[in-house]
Every structure is written in structure tokens, then in C-alpha cells.
Specification:
single chain; two-stranded antiparallel sheet
Length: about 350
């Protein structure tokens, strides 16, 4: 092998190694980098929720609550005394004070059996689910009569619903809101072998799981299997106490289920709303082609920075040049990864 051929082969080898390292770096970004972003978002949501709770307490005082019937942990004799709930007349008086805007914090969900304790946002857009589990606005608020549905990531952004397959029938789910705390008990399901489990699997288009089922329940949805968006894992839980009073202005339009968020704001006719319902489980989980151009531009910028660092190192000294260029390269690469993550199906 002559020197020219060896140089070409060596260059190809170094290029493949670099590409492999970038792929591994992106995998690490998805598994750990997104978790850091979610943790920061959860802290902000926690502060926001505490502020809203304090504001409601200042408005209502101490004489505006009613006691929710105690709940019992399944399989245990311990009686739980939940925090007082707002009285129906106070809920009616507060009105929109209790209704969050799209993307705002609306409560907290805890599943003790699998270690889940996360703040919930109102909405299931991509940006919403990057902050934490999100409630489908087309469903009733937690604790109310009907089927409340909440979606969450299973492998990225904190993976709040990563262990839904470990939930067992009878496990408790606690949802805290501005107007009260409500308890649910996981319903039994049958797996393919006839065994009793706490979940079931559906196609990604099975929108009927968030429809009213004729009872008062909570439905949790996430991608299945892990690292794939091909199907959905569903956990259904029944409300074990009387439903909460209906909140004012809770007639929700499921418009954020439409893939294009700009179009969603203009969804008013019946055909558009039908399209929204058809995509209610896939809008925030499928491909987002709007991120293609930003991903390519940030990727090209990262390549140019790397090339500049290489040429700078040859013209000067490699080690000092690489030390100077590395922070810039990592910053641009992070931007590329952020857009690429938004482009790919959410997991």
C-alpha cells in the first residue's frame, strides 16, 4: 500500500471513528442530557405550583375547604387523610383562577409503587412533555367525573412513565391539584398469556383509550416498547372517592393534537377538530419535520467549527488549538442535538 492510499484509508478511518463518537454522544444526550433539562423544568414547575397554591390560599382563607373521604392503600390497612379540597362554591367563585394556560403547571402525580413523583403540565405538545407528564386538554381535569388522560415520556426527558409496565393492579396513583387531592386505584388487565397485569398495549392510533368509558378514571399513556414509538402502553385507574366538582370553563378543544402547532391555533371547523382527535396520541410523539432545517444548519455549523479547529491546529499547535475550539464545538453540537431530538419521534 503506497503512502497516498494509506493516507486515504487513514482519513476514512478517522472520519468513521468521529461519526461513531458523535452517534454515541447523541445517544448519551438523549438518555442523560434530556434528563437534566427535564429536572430543571420540573424545579421551575414546582416553584410555579407552590406560588399558585399560596395565591389560592390567600384568596380562599381557611374556611373554604371540605374534607375528601380518606383513602386506603390497597393491601394495607393504613388510612390516608388527604389534604382538604376546595368547597364547590369556592371552586365556582374562583373560576378561571384554577384553569391553567397551555403549557402551565396544573398539579402533581405520584405513583409510589414505581417511584414516580412529577409535576403535570396542561397540554401534550412536544414542548409540554419535555417539562413533565402532560394532561390531554380534551379530557376532564383530575378528580372530575369522566376519563382524565395524562401522557408522558418513557425513555427520555426524565422518563416519568418509564416503568409503567411494572405497575400492578390495585397500586395507588395520587394526583394533587389546586382544588384538591384525588386517589386512583390501578385496574387489572390481562396480558397475552392471560396473566393479570396493570397495563395493556394498543396501536399508536387507538384514540378510544382517552374517550369517556362510562366511569370516573385516570388513563396514563406512553410509548411502547421502550426506545420505540410504534405502540402505546396504557394504565387505567379508577377514582376511589367522590368526583370533584366541575371546574368552570372546562370545555376543552383538542386542537393541540394537530401536528402543526401554528395550524392548531386556527382549528375551529368540525373537520379540523376531527383530525385533531385522530392524532391525539401521535402529535407529540411522531416526526417533526419542521426541525429538519435547523438540525441541518446546526450540524453544518458543528462541522465547520471542527474543520476550523483542525486547520487551526495544523497552522499553530494542536493541543492549544483543540483546547480553544472544543467549548465552541460542544456548544454548537448541543444545539444540533437539541434540534435533532425534536425532529425524531419522541420516546
Amino acid at each position: 500500500m503506497n503512502q497516498r492510499t494509506a493516507s486515504i484509508v487513514g482519513g476514512i478511518g478517522r472520519t468513521l471513528i468521529a461519526l461513531g463518537l458523535i452517534v454515541l454522544s447523541f445517544a448519551a444526550f438523549q438518555l442523560w442530557g434530556t434528563n437534566l433539562q427535564e429536572a430543571r423544568n420540573q424545579n421551575a414547575l414546582g416553584d410555579e405550583f407552590s406560588e399558585r397554591q399560596a395565591a389560592i390560599a390567600d384568596i380562599t382563607g381557611n374556611d373554604s375547604t371540605t374534607t375528601t373521604p380518606p383513602a386506603t392503600v390497597p393491601g394495607d390497612t393504613t388510612t390516608i387523610a388527604p389534604p382538604p379540597s376546595l368547597a364547590p362554591e369556592i371552586i365556582a367563585e374562583l373560576g378561571d383562577e384554577l384553569i391553567p394556560e397551555q403549557g402551565e403547571v396544573m398539579g402533581n402525580i405520584a405513583i409510589p409503587s414505581i417511584g414516580v413523583d412529577k409535576h403535570i403540565v396542561f397540554g401534550t405538545r412536544r414542548g409540554d412533555l419535555r417539562e413533565g407528564p402532560g394532561m390531554y386538554p380534551s379530557t376532564p381535569f383530575p378528580g372530575q367525573a369522566g376519563n382524565t388522560a395524562i401522557a408522558g415520556h418513557r425513555t427520555t426527558y426524565g422518563a416519568p412513565f418509564g416503568d409503567l409496565d411494572l405497575v400492578q393492579p390495585g397500586d395507588q396513583i395520587v394526583v394533587e391539584t389546586l382544588y384538591g387531592t384525588y386517589y386512583y386505584e390501578v385496574l387489572p388487565q390481562a396480558d397475552a398469556d392471560g396473566n393479570e397485569v396493570g397495563y395493556f398495549i394498543v396501536d399508536d392510533s387507538a384514540v378510544e383509550v382517552v374517550d369517556d368509558q362510562g366511569d370516573n378514571r385516570l388513563t396514563l399513556t406512553a410509548c411502547h416498547p421502550k426506545y420505540s414509538a410504534a405502540q402505546r402502553i396504557i394504565v387505567s385507574a379508577k377514582l376511589v372517592s367522590a368526583p370533584a366538582p366541575e371546574l368552570p370553563s372546562t370545555t376543552a378543544v383538542p386542537i393541540e393534537a394537530i401536528p402543526d402547532e401554528d395550524v392548531a391555533s386556527e382549528a375551529t371547523d368540525e373537520s379540523t377538530l376531527d383530525l385533531a382527535e385522530e392524532n391525539v396520541l401521535t402529535e407529540s410523539l411522531g416526526w417533526n419535520t419542521e426541525e429538519t432545517l435547523p438540525t441541518v444548519l446546526w450540524g453544518a455549523a458543528a462541522a465547520l467549527v471542527a474543520l476550523a479547529g483542525y486547520l487551526f491546529g495544523r497552522a499553530w499547535q494542536r493541543l492549544p488549538a483543540y483546547v480553544l475550539i472544543t467549548p465552541v464545538f460542544l456548544y454548537v453540537l448541543w444545539g444540533c442535538f437539541s434540534h435533532l431530538d425534536k425532529l425524531l419521534p419522541a420516546l
